[in-house]
Amino acid sequence: MKIGVVIFPGSNCDEDIFYALKDAMKQDVVKLWHKDKDLHGCDFIVLPGGFSYGDYLRSGAIARFSPVMELVVEHAQKGGYVLGICNGFQILTEAGLLPGALLHNKSQKFVCKNAYIRPVSRTAALTAGLNTEQVFKIPVAHGEGRYFASDELLKELHDNDQILFKYCDEKGEWNEAGNFNGSAENIAGICNKQKNVFGMMPHPERAVDRQLGNTDGIAIFKSLFNFTNQMV
Amino acid sequence: MKFRAEIDVMPVKEILDPQGKAVKLGLTNLGLKEVSNVRIGKHILLELEADSEEAAAAKVEEACKRLLANLVMEDYSYKITQE
């Protein structure tokens, strides 16, 4: 399986995810430029974190009109895998590939810290190999990460088992204390109905190196690639 | 013909607007205790060419729906005037 990391003007986690996938996860990965007119044979597309187009208008709103995004949308609609992390998640909601929206944090502050998340659904590749009782410590760094969905949409997310991660406290309780940005139902990550497009605000790529003191992200990528490599 | 569109994009009612809340607190601290609610949105000015006001409105609608507002979280309204 070949992975493509899309770089937009203003992306700043592209090197981190590239390193995590190539060096830590030993995957075949290339960089794609936002002006690219083809996906260079990639089976799996990653939209990294950052501040694409300076977060002008709304986070992710302008990136969605980058030439490469047309191809990413097409790829996703054909069932191809796409993962968006942080700004990548925001771009996916703006592009309509994932439902809901990401609003300013409830505190109105940019939050940069280790957050705790616990998997919910195990029916999607990103969480299929994870233990839903396990708490993962994954860094977050965002100002607009408050997941919002209407009541009908939340019901739909439940009915289709689309909620992948929820923020929790250190002990794994899905409570207010863990929900630092005020997301609806503590939601930290979701997938689409077809389960080939994933989005999450926390950064698992920042937690794959023992030298940096946190390797909780490895299990998440392992789950993803164990599952998707079999499918491609 | 040249038209000018003044567009307002506002967070939808049911959404908490933390920026508005922080500004309301500032106004209260300033002594303006009469202010009971603040909501903050965007004001966008567009200048465009169109054959008629209806045609201009159609373009502005498209701009709002496809980019300027995210209908999941925002409402928009606009006023069009001929230059």
Which terms summarize this structure?
heterodimer; A: 232 residues; nine-stranded mixed beta sheet; 6 helices; 11 strands; B: 83 residues; alpha+beta; Mth169, Chain: A
Fold topology:
The complex is a heterodimer of chains A (232) and B (83).
Chain A: E1 2-7, H1 14-24, E2 28-33, E3 44-47, H2 67-77, E4 81-85, H3 87-94, E5 101-103, E6 111-119, H4 125-128, E7 136-142, E8 146-148, H5 151-159, E9 163-168, E10 187-191, E11 197-200, H6 217-231
Parallel strand pairs in A: 1-2, 1-3, 3-4, 4-11
Antiparallel strand pairs in A: 5-8, 6-7, 6-9, 9-10, 10-11
Chain B: E1 2-11, H1 18-29, E2 42-49, H2 53-68, E3 74-82
Antiparallel strand pairs in B: 1-2, 1-3
Give a description of the structure:
- The complex is a heterodimer of chains A (232) and B (83).
- With 232 residues, chain A is of the alpha/beta class.
- Helices cover 25% and strands 25% of the residues of chain A.
- Chain A has one domain (2-231): Rossmann fold, CATH 3.40.50.
- Chain A has 6 helices and 11 strands.
- The termini of chain A are close together.
- Chain B has a 3-stranded antiparallel beta sheet with strand order 2-1-3, covered by helices on one side.
- The model of chain B has no long low-confidence stretch (mean pLDDT 96).
- Chain B is α+β, with helices and mostly antiparallel strands and 83 residues long.
- Chain B has 2 helices and 3 strands, in the order E-H-E-H-E.
- The chains are: A alpha/beta (232), B alpha+beta (83).
- Chain A binds chain B through residues 57-58, 61-62, 65, 93-94, 100-101, 103-108, 148, 150, 182, and chain B through 11, 15-16, 18-19, 21-22, 67-68, 70, 72-73.
